[in-house]
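Take a look at this chain, C-alpha cells included, and explain the fold to me:
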Amino acid sequence: MAYFLAALALSVFLTVIVRKIAIKKQIIDYPDNHRKLHNRPVPLLGGWAIFLAFWLVMGYLIFFTEILGHNLQPQRLIGVFIGSFILMILGYFDDKKNLSPKIRLAVSASAVIIAIAGGVGLDKITNPFGGVIALDSWQFQLGIFGTVSILSAVIVFIWLLGMMYTTKISDGLDGLSTGIVLVGALMIFFLSRAGKFFQPDVAVVALILAGACLGFLFFNFYPAKIFLGEGGGLFLGFILGVLAIIAGGKIATALLVMAIPMLDFIRVIYLRFKIKQPLLKGDRRHLHYQLLDLGWGHRQTVLILYAVSFAFGLTTLFLQSREKMIVLLVLAALMTFVGVWLGRQEELNKN
C-alpha cells in the first residue's frame, strides 16, 4: 500500500507541475466541436506525470529493494523503460506539432520491438480447451538480447500495439482511458494476490500503476483540467499490456477489462476499411462519441464504461480459461449487434 500511495502522491504533484509547463509552452488542446468536445482550451502532456510517477517508484524498487522477483527481473524492464520513454518523446512532439499517423505508428511499433528485444515475451499461452500452447518454436538469436521466439514476438507485437491504440483512442472522453487502465491494474493486482497465482512482485507493480493513474485522474476526470496527450494514451496501453504479459500471461484479464474499447476499435477500423477511409484518421464512430450523440451525458458515459470494465474484470477472478473465452465471444457478439444498431441510427439521423 505504501508504494500505491507514493505513486498517487507523486502523480498528483507531477500533474500540477506538468500542467504549468504545458501552459507555459502553449502545448494546448483546443476544442473543435467535433471530436474535441471540451468547452475551453486544455493543456496536454499529462501522460508525463503518470510516466514519471510510475518509473520513479519503480526505480526505487529496482535499486533499493529486493521486491522484484522472477516475474519482473530488472534487466527485463530496461527495454520496457526505453520503449515507454520513446513513446513519451513521440507524444511530446505530436502534441506540439501534430505528427502524421504513419510516423506515430512507426515510432510506436519501434517501442514495442525494443520491449520484445529486451525480454518481454511469452513462453506459452493457456489453451481454452485444455492444456497450454507452447510458443518456443522458430527461435532466433538476437545478439546480446539472447534467443527470441518468432511466434511469441508476433503475438506480443500485435497485443501491445492493439492495447496502445485502444487506450489512445479511448482518451476521447475526459478520464475514460485513465480510469479503464486503473481498473485493469487493480484486476491484475487482485489476481496476483490470489493463492492460485500469488505473485507479490507483480501485485506491487500493478498497485504502482493504479496509484499513478488515480493521482492523475483527479485532474483528468470530467471536466478535465489536463489531458493525457498522445504519449500518455500510448504509454498506458503499453504498460498495462506489458504487465499482463510479464505477470505470467494475464492477457485474458487485461483483455476482458479492455474488451469493450478494444472491440469498438476493431469495429471502427473495419468500418473505415469498408468505406475506404484512411484507417488511422480519427472520426466520431467510436462508441463513446455515439453514446453522446444519443443524448448520454459526458460523465454518465464515462462512469457506465468504467462499470462495464470493472464488471468484466471481476469475472477474471473466478472464471477459468474456457469460460473467459465464452465471455469474450458473447461480448464480441454484443458489440456486433450494437455496431449494427448504431449504424442504423446514424443512417436515420442523416435521413
In short: The chain is about 70% helix and 5% strand. Residues 2-257 form one domain. The longest strand covers residues 124-126.
